[in-house]
Amino acid sequence: MEPQQILLPFLLLLSFFIHFSTVSSQAPAPAPPGPTNITAILAKAGQFNTLIRLLQSTQLANQINTQLNNSNQGLTVFAPTDNAFSNLKAGTLNSLTDQEKVELMQFHVVPTFLSINQFQTVSNPLRTQAGSSDSGGFPLNVTTSGNQVNITTGIVNATVSNSIYSDNQLAVYQVDQVLLPLQLFGTPAPAAAPTPAPSKPKKSGKPTDDSVVDADAKNPDSSDAIGSSMIQVALMSKVSFAVSAVAFYVVTMR
Is residue 22 part of a domain? Predict the structure, then answer.
């Protein structure tokens, strides 16, 4: 067998291998679907550094991610921008305890998925993860005007300025102000005036020396009358003694 006949099958096999390898390298491999990550979504959108830091420090970011990736329950997140946080009064965040920071972040999360159109028919007040609004501590009310969505908390009035993310399970909306709940930032009601203690009843019994003195002080005439009577008795005793002495003397002289 000639060398050309021996090399021909080998060259054909090599050509087929090179062609297959080239086609395979040009076709992109499908990326596996990654788990939903709220901080990654905010980081990609930009201008949410303060919110990301608070979600991480309060562990709420992990709770949101776990809930989204392990259940079918939807969530809606209202995301204040860095500019919204910078507009807060100085020291606002530092004045909160760790638990109050958790409640502040939970107040920005509604435990249901709300599309932008559902805000027009939603029932107020919205329930947030911070708790029920029945007690008046965490009310969150939504109103719409055309395509504009407004949010009021009793402390601030905010506007939804952009839809950042939506996948029919998680909706993230940009808001122009930090949502401050009444529970944390409302003026506390004035304390009720203390109820006066009931007066103690006066004890009955023998009057004290002080009460006798007070009685005499209130009735000076009675004291004068007693003194006058004692003087009259003393005078009468002296007169009687004198009369008796005179009578005895007369009798003895006879």
Answer: no
Averaged over 169-182, what is the pLDDT? Answer: 96
Residue 204: pLDDT above 70? no
Give residues with Cβ within 8 angstroms of 222, minimum separation 6: 216
β-partners of residue 80 are 175
In a domain, 78, yes or no: yes
Q: Which of 37, 104, 106, 39 is nearest to 66 (CA)?
A: 37
Q: Which domain holds residue 220?
A: 215-253
Do residues 137 and 76 both lie within one domain? yes
Q: What is the DSSP letter of 123?
A: P
Number of structural domains (the chain) is 2
In a domain, residue 80? The reply is yes
Instruction: Indicate whether 237 and 131 sit together in one domain.
Output: no
Query: pLDDT at residue 51 above 60?
Result: yes
CA-CA distance, 76 to 117, in Å (whole number)? Answer: 13
Query: What is the average pLDDT across 161-187?
Result: 93
Residue 70 has pLDDT above 80, yes or no: yes
Q: List residues bridging with 159 in a β-sheet.
A: 150
Residue 92 lies in a domain: yes
Above pLDDT 70, what percent of the chain? 58
Distance linking the first and last C-alpha atoms of the chain: 208
